[in-house]
Amino acid sequence: MGFLENQMKKVETLFAKGKPLAKLYPVYEALDTFLLTPGTKTQRAPYIRDAIDLKRVMISVVVALFPCIVMGIYNTGYQIQMASAAEHSWATAFGQGLQKVLPIILVSYAAGGFWEVLFAVVRKHEINEGFLVTGILYALVLPPTIPLWQVAVGISFGVVIGKEIFGGTGMNVLNPALTARAFVFFAYPAQMSGDAVFVAVDGFTRATPLAVAAAAQRGTSAVAALHQAGYTFQDIFLGFIPGSIGETSTLACLIGLAFLLITRVASWRIVAGCFLGLTAMSSVFYFLHGAGTLALFSLPPHWHIALGGFAFGAIFMATDPVSSSATDLGCWIYGVMIGLLVVLIRVVNPAYPEGVMLAILFMNIFAPLIDHFVVRRNIRRRITRAAAK
């Protein structure tokens, strides 16, 4: 590490004020921070000794995403083998999946990183580590068949319109990765939805489990329709189903959640609120289902949790510390409302059975308002207690 630090100090002189590369100092600072330590340190007392900083928070989230990344790569190849009726091989499936997924991740980082560097250079501030998370989250919520140019357009929209126009990292109202995903979903629906976009084999179509449940006839059982289509709860929970790259495996998401909770990076209140809200709303619909209701009414809560991108969204998207609620009570309200809205969108609007993206973006908008009323409530309670003394 001493050798690396010395080399970085030598390179730093090329980016000093007045030097030809002075305008690109944010690029050097970002590389130095990534390889060594954060660019700013406390110079005088009081000192706070803590192993956590922004870089380590972002890296912790990326580490927590590893199970989803590995499972997403493998499942992409697995679906190709299933569609091609080829003999199953773990190594071949992972290799085929890597060929499809890796370019999407690289394009996401390259295109989004370009805008991050450009705005940092123009505004003369350091490059924030938050894009390490945004770039990978965006890639994982895309189908493996999406054209790479659409990956670049979507992340560009998410970074520029979803974050930079608000002032950059820490100032954005909406989750940048979900903003990018929403853009490509509505701009290029043919490449983002349908039966042919989640299995990377030309001419092969297979509906996702949520699409199967939404298409079932009124008054019938959604679970029965899923079983008839060849989907078992075990396969759905483990992630051996068509879907966006990183969202299919609930088990992989829960492993990542355990890491985030142990490191105290994610808010357990938000995650618990999401699961509580989804369980409550889906239970209401489950007990209301009858002969004339949509098939999704009959879907039990644990199926709702395992289906679609709910677990991924609740664990990695809803817990974004910038766009979510910050107060303890606000986190509960924010999370519960996301869970309620997910089920409400899925069940009442069967034309759009996956409601996680819209539910989180909708609550991103209301998060500051929730915190405002929670803070005002606490102030009134303190004034009342003070007056009673």
Number of extended strands: 0
So what's the overall shape?
globular
Number of helices: 18
Distance between the termini: 60 Å
Count of all domains: 2
Helix content: 55-70%
Largest sheet: none
User: Which stretches of 5+ consecutive residues score pLDDT under 50?
Assistant: none
Q: Give me the secondary-structure category.
A: mainly alpha
Proportion of β residues?
under 5%
What is the arithmetic mean of pLDDT? 87
Give an overview of the whole structure.
With 389 residues, the chain is an all-alpha fold. It has two domains: 55-192; 209-365, no CATH class. It contains 18 helices and no strands. Helix 3 runs parallel beside helix 6 (131-140) and helix 7 (148-160) packs across helix 8. It starts with a helix and ends with a helix.
